Amino acid sequence: MTKKKILIVTEYFYPEEFKINDIAISWKKAGYDVDILTTVPTYPESKIYNGYKNKFYQKDNWNGINIYRVKAVTGYKTSLFKKLLKYFSFMILGSIVSLRIGKKYNYIFGFNMASLTGMVPAVIIKKLYNKRLTFWAQDIWPDSVYAYGFKKTKLLSYILDKFVGFMYHNIDNIAISGKGFESKLKPYAKESLEFNYLPNWADDLNNSLEAYEFTKDTRVHFTFAGNIGKVQNLENIIKAFDGLSNNYQNKAQLNIIGDGSALEDLKNITKRDNIIFHGKKPRKEMAMYYKASDFLIVSLIDKPIFSVTVPAKTQTYILAEKPILAIINGDAADIIKENNLGFTAHPKDIDEIKDVFIQSINLSKEEKSIFTKNCKNLTENTFNKDKIINSLEELLVKEK
User: Fold this and answer.
1) Reduced to 3 states, what is the DSSP secondary structure of residue 132?
2) How far is 183 from 33, CA to CA, in rounded Å?
3) What is the spatial distance between Cα 86 and Cα 24, in angstroms, rounded to a whole number?
4) Sign of the torsion formed by the C-alpha atoms of 259, 264, 268 and 269
5) Spatial CB neighbours of 300, under 8 Å, sequence gap ≥ 6
6) Are 226 and 340 in contact (CB under 8 A)?
7) What value does the CA radius of gyration of the chain take, rounded to a whole number of Å?
8) Of 5, 115, 151, 351, whose CB neighbour count within 10 A is largest?
């Protein structure tokens, strides 16, 4: 019996660390022939990884999975123009490759992690070769375009609405990583398209690692880990933490782990010596820092699009079984409140964020253990990696 062939279209793949790597391996083990169409790896430093050459087209292999790579744009970390060029580059070069290789696949899977333009190669295969196409949406166009600072003019709105409508009218199945995505995307989709809520699962944690030692003295440790950009709202979190009285300052420390475009600006506004920037750490070592933390912070600025966005780190925090401070609106805050996993605050309200810090510092061990227990239950029942990957496979092969 001939193996069914799957092509995964994604701007990010191994050695970049994204969940699509786990999906590809799982489907390969399930008996499918799995190939990848992606770029030369550059994320998050916007530099070519060691061991790779930035050719217009090349092919490599990872764990028996063929990877077709196209030339990457670098330098996008600090340049909006290069970031836009990066998106359009993959759309064009990826589409050229898709014309050549697309015919041989049974199923096409689009991992829509960032710009919707990155899914154009998948739609071209669908249109040209009539292959079944499934998207797993991690982002929402056109809302995300405006959220990142583009002015909503009549011309831009017209172009984006037409483009998004074209894309979502040419897919067979869709999974969404946030429940609120459906209301945002439904106006652009064909009426027959069913939306399937399949959230992100937690990153694997190496719990055999010893806890990192943030300080020699006993303190309540608050930790933010991940990309440090404008939308992560760390400026308000730092301002709130700075505003704590000396009594609370002596009891607590704010740890910021990661790198990003806003890092230097945040360092410049920090007034306290108990706000520590630890830099970027390997994902495989993150369990050390989660273990050493008393509370983990997930945050985004107050924009409509982020009210339906659940940052992937949320599930990892839940897996770490630590109380969570959700400085965010919408779906992510609802998960924390409805499952009693920690505290929430409005991202714009610095006084409210400060009160959440105070509540956390004053929390008893017994109260904290309730949050921990609820995290464990949610991981087992809702954010289960194997269940979600299996559901994505069922959706991929689902007939009309």
Assistant:
1) strand
2) 35
3) 24
4) negative
5) 231, 232, 233, 306, 309, 311, 327, 328, 332, 347
6) no
7) 22
8) 115
Nearest residue to 231 (alpha-carbon basis) of 324, 307, 137, 314: 307
Q: Could you tell me how many residues make up the chain?
A: 400
Q: What is the dihedral of CA 227, 228, 234, 235, to 10 degrees?
A: -160
Residues near 218 by beta carbon (within 8 Å), at least 6 away in sequence: none
- Strand partners for 344: 326
For residue 396 the two structure tokens come to 């991929």
Token pair of 15 as six digits: 């050695």
Domains and CATH numbers, the chain: 5-200+384-396 (3.40.50.2000), 220-381 (3.40.50.2000)
Nearest in space to 122 (alpha carbons), one of 160, 159, 170, 88: 170
3-state secondary structure of 252: strand
The 10 Å CB-count burial string (b at 16+, else e) for 85-115 is ebbebbbebbbebbeebbeebbbbbbbbbbb
